[in-house]
Design a protein that fits this description.
By secondary structure, the protein is an all-alpha fold. The protein has a domain at about 1-45. The chain has one helix at about 1-50. The longest helix has about 45 residues, at about 1-50. It is rod-shaped.
Length: about 70
């Protein structure tokens, strides 16, 4: 009986440690997602405003083979 209790305590300790590690990783992932969302919004805003990504046709130089 006592051996079973010891085994259960070991499992509980392992699970508690694992839960803490997973929680830490989840926090890191949430921060990364937040940063990526901000970066994506910035890129989308630049594309929507034409932020120099594509020039107007009359501003484009012809390719060198012309």
């Amino acid at each position: 009986m006592e051996q079973r209790i010891i085994e259960l305590e070991k499992r509980l300790t392992f699970q508690a440690r694992l839960l803490e590690e997973l929680n830490g990783e989840l926090i890191v992932q949430q921060k990364r997602i937040g940063l990526l969302e901000k970066q994506l919004k910035s890129v989308m805003d630049q594309v929507r405003s034409g932020g120099g990504v594509v020039k107007d046709l009359q501003d484009e130089e012809p390719p060198p083979h012309y």
